[in-house]
Amino acid sequence: MGTASCQILRTAGINNGKYHETPKNHLHILPQFSYNFPRNFFNFSSKSLQYKRLAASCLPSTSQQQNSSPELAVLLEVEGVLMDVYRLGNRQAFNVAFRKLGLDCANWTEPIYLDLVRKSAGDEEMMLILYFNRIGWPTSLPTSEKGTFMQSVLQEKKKALDDLVMSKSLPLRPGVEE
């Protein structure tokens, strides 16, 4: 087992690998973060650790710390914080999913996508229902299989979005690289 500890996660209320709520008025009493990872949990390439959407980098902040063991910082990405996946990625991923499923007539332009997001409050299944109710469902699709069809579209969309994010073709938000 490898062990990681980090001061940065104290305010998040993480202790012994488990998350717990820290009352706002008790932030000065911060728990120690410590977590045991299985040996092969992370891919150790250079000084960077990566596991799906969990990324950690060792960055000494002063020349004195460069000689000591580096601290470990863990960055937990919440979708949409580091890059604008909602505006840029999701629409593109839906269009890729439509093409993979042979739905060439389905192509969401930005105005269509934004209208669907607004009307569905961001619920992707509702976005599909609204869209196909407007343009018509695929003629080969029995009414009883609409749910299965939507799940297929959403699975393909998720794969396409993961590929898009991993390709690094979406720009990072300003200030993220600093």
UniProtKB/TrEMBL annotation:
Keyword Ion transport assigned: no
The UniProt record lists the keyword Amino-acid biosynthesis: no
Gene Ontology MF: a single term: hydrolase activity
Alphabetical UniProt keywords: Hydrolase
UniProt cross-references to InterPro entries, sorted A to Z: CbbY-like, PGP-like_dom2
PANTHER family membership: PROTEIN, PUTATIVE, EXPRESSED-RELATED, XYLULOSE-1,5-BISPHOSPHATE (XUBP) PHOSPHATASE
Protein name: Haloacid dehalogenase-like hydrolase domain-containing protein
Organism field: Actinidia chinensis var. chinensis (Chinese soft-hair kiwi)
